[in-house]
Design goal:
The structure is a single chain. With 265 residues, this protein is an alpha/beta fold. Helix content is 46%, strand content 18%. It is built from 11 helices and 8 strands. An 8-stranded mixed β-sheet has the order 1-2-4-3-5-6-7-8, with helices on both faces. Strand 1 and strand 2 form a beta hairpin. The longest helix is centred in the middle third of the chain and has 25 residues. The protein is globular, with a radius of gyration of 17 Å.
Length: 265
């Protein structure tokens, strides 16, 4: 079922599927809630699944010049309040994982479990921040060209040809975003702080999904983070990069489904 709410005088779009304990799935940078269709169909057989277009993405409007992870987390909280959800498992892909950690820091009592799906508790390195500054310059020059080159690079080279159709669909989704929205998300990710202390102090189960061929998220840094929480589960895949929900949909869905069932058992 489709819904909208007003947040920061702007329209935020989300959908709900199924009934039961709440599972919130958050997409990554330049994506939309549509990426979770397969996952939502399966998870909603036993749970209430909430899929949100984060600000500036999908059908949700841009709400600020900089979409900080905390601001987007507050937006997610507004959606959960509208749905009268008091606790949930939250799983985020890439940028969605950053928002998940920001949400968990702000609203600890609402979190039953956290999934970092090709995501990290670390902030940008100085090199990463410099890359985002360069990306913003390219986006301002021609954001369509940025998208066309950015998205295929998220996939392992051997997966690009077999997933040509899916890559094209992701490019179409991203091209619906405004230049303003793409830059707002880049600025927000560039400003994010470390959440390593949260992994140490928030004692909930964590799920890490990582690909050894991920050029965006160094594999060794993920391994280090897996060891931090008191309860940690992981799916480590050697043949994928940053887009496991498309590069290995059945394996990643099975990991998410098992994690959700275990937490809610």
């Amino acid at each position: 079922m489709e819904h909208t709410i007003q947040f920061n005088q702007s329209e935020i779009h989300y959908t709900t599927i199924g009934k039961g304990n709440a599972v919130v799935l958050l997409h990554g940078f330049t994506e939309s809630l549509d990426i979770w269709e397969y996952f939502g169909d399966i998870l909603s057989l036993e749970h209430k699944v909430i899929l949100i277009d984060l600000p500036g993405h999908g059908k949700s409007e841009c709400i600020a010049e900089t979409h900080t992870m905390e601001l987007m987390a507050e937006c997610v909280k507004a959606v959960l309040d509208a749905q009268k959800v008091n606790e949930c498992i939250m799983i985020g892909h890439s940028m969605g994982g950053y928002v998940t950690l920001a949400f968990a820091e702000l609203y600890k009592d609402m979190i039953r479990g956290i999934g970092l799906f090709h995501s990290s508790a670390l902030p940008d390195t100085p090199e990463g921040k410099a890359n985002r500054v360069r990306a913003i310059e390219i986006i301002r020059s021609n954001h369509s060209n940025f998208i066309t080159s950015f998205i295929p690079d998220l996939f392992a080279p051997e997966n690009r040809k077999p997933l040509e159709k899916e890559i094209s669909q992701l490019i179409d989704i991203a091209n619906q975003m405004t230049e303003e929205s793409i830059i707002a998300a880049q600025k927000g990710m560039m400003e994010r702080k470390s959440k390593i202390d949260l992994l140490k102090t928030l004692d909930v189960p964590y799920l890490f999904i990582a690909g050894k061929k991920d050029s965006r998220l160094p594999f060794d840094k993920v391994i280090e983070q897996i060891a931090i929480p008191n309860q940690s589960f992981s799916l480590l895949l050697g043949d994928i990069a940053h887009m496991g929900y498309l590069e290995a949909p059945n394996k990643t869905l099975n990991a998410v489904n098992c994690f959700v069932k275990w937490v809610f058992a």
